[in-house]
Specification:
The chain has three domains: about 220 residues, Alpha-lytic protease prodomain-like, CATH 1.20.1510.10; about 80 residues, Alpha-Beta Plaits (2-Layer Sandwich); about 80 residues, Histidine-containing Protein, Chain: A (2-Layer Sandwich). The chain is built from ten helices and six strands. Helices cover about 60% and strands about 15% of the residues.
């Protein structure tokens, strides 16, 4: 059973999602324009001011522009509605984009370390930059920090791992501009080596960010379960609902900003199928209300904890047709054939409890014992319950 959102939620969700997507696309366009402008300014001033670090930082900004294009592309795909080929939606495309972005950050960090070490080895050949490079670096720091903050804020609001990854990419560019600022300032007062050591330190920070983003993306792509604390909160909410006697096989996974649940819900074995279904509907309704990131829930209704039954699947109890034929052969002469049509089967403890509904004219104090004793060779028969009309 896989209940959907309530009508009110279904009406509200698309408009909110569309509004967030519009804001995301607009932010990505602004970000791309700023990255292009910063890259051009830093390369141009770097050439005029004889600052190789600023030129490299400008190239870094152009790499951010390429990243913005990638984020825009994967965000458009990731927010598409489910279709026949992707019934669970397209959020994994966004996760894949985050993995690529994290990998790019690691590569950028590696390039910065290599360049810094090379310049440190050849420190005598490094020419002294001029003061305009400081102005360009300051502009880049403040601009990229501004982009970092607004991107991070929107990413947290929309729970988009891709936007959050891009926010950290903006901060990595701000950090590299700080490196330029320190390096140019150090070179102007005679400490050119300061730029190299600062660059190596920040490059390791960028690499750690890239590693964290890549690791989290891989965990999501391979359906890693949510934290034990979060799962415990879900279980506590489920068991507080009337009619639920237990929960097991609770499986969780994340797709982008959405959480998917697969729940085995235990209810009283004597209730009707429709009541069990209704309990499952209430569980779904409450979880969707209490946990904003849960969007898809699959509920299996169980009459008992079936965890142990998996070990005995080779000896499964038969279905109704075979049960009736076996009982007809066994109880021949004890009950009319029509009476064996009026029965309810309860599959419990790897066997069957058979409920018979008989007319009062057939009342017998020993009938239950006779039926059970006659059917003693039926390994799947647990007990016989008789009800008289």
């Amino acid at each position: 059973m896989q209940p959907n959102n309530t009508p009110a939620q279904a009406d509200a969700t698309p408009s909110k999602s569309g509004k967030n997507q519009h804001k995301t696309q607009r932010l990505i366009i602004i970000s791309g324009f700023v990255d292009f402008l910063l890259g051009a300014i830093k390369v141009f001033i770097g050439l005029l001011a004889n600052s190789h670090a600023l030129i490299a930082d400008g190239i870094h900004s152009f790499s951010d522009l390429a990243t913005d294009v990638m984020v825009w592309f994967f965000n458009r795909i990731g927010t598409k509605e489910p279709d026949s080929d992707h019934p669970y939606g397209h959020a994994r495309f966004e996760t894949f984009g985050t993995l690529i972005l994290g990998t790019l950050l690691i590569m950028v960090a590696g390039a910065l370390i290599y360049d810094s070490v090379d310049r440190l080895i050849n420190i005598e050949s490094v020419e002294q930059p001029m003061w305009p490079a400081l102005i360009a670096a300051l502009i880049s720091i403040f601009t990229k920090e501004w982009l970092y903050n607004i991107t991070k804020k929107l990413g947290e609001r929309t729970q988009s791992s891709l936007l959050l990854a891009n926010a950290w990419h903006h901060r990595s560019d701000a950090m590299s501009s700080i490196i330029v600022l320190l390096g140019v300032g150090g070179a102007l007062i005679g400490y050119a080596w300061l730029e190299m050591f600062a660059a190596i330190g920040v490059a390791f920070m960028i690499a750690l960010i890239g590693w964290r983003l890549s690791r989290e993306s891989v965990e999501e792509l391979v359906d890693t379960a949510l934290s034990e604390t979060y799962v415990a909160q879900i279980e506590q909410e489920i068991t507080s609902i009337e009619g639920v006697t237990g929960v097991h096989h609770l499986r969780t996974r994340r797709m982008g900003s959405s959480v998917f649940l697969d729940i085995h819900l235990q209810v009283d074995s004597a209730i009707s199928v429709s009541e069990g279904h209704q309990i499952g509907e209430w569980v779904t309704k409450i979880l969707l209300q209490e946990f904003n990131d849960i969007t898809d829930i699959t509920v299996h209704i169980d009459a008992e904890d079936d965890a142990e039954m998996e070990e005995h699947q080779h000896s499964m109890a038969p279905l109704r047709k075979d049960v009736r034929e076996a009982l007809l052969r066994t109880w021949q002469g004890l009950l009319p054939e029509d009476d064996i049509n009026r029965m309810t089967l309860h599959y419990l403890n790897n066997g069957i409890n058979v409920e018979l509904f008989l007319e009062r004219t057939q009342r017998s104090t020993n009938l239950k014992e006779e039926l059970e004793q006659t059917a003693i060779d039926l390994a799947w028969l647990n007990q016989v319950v008789i009800w008289y009309r």
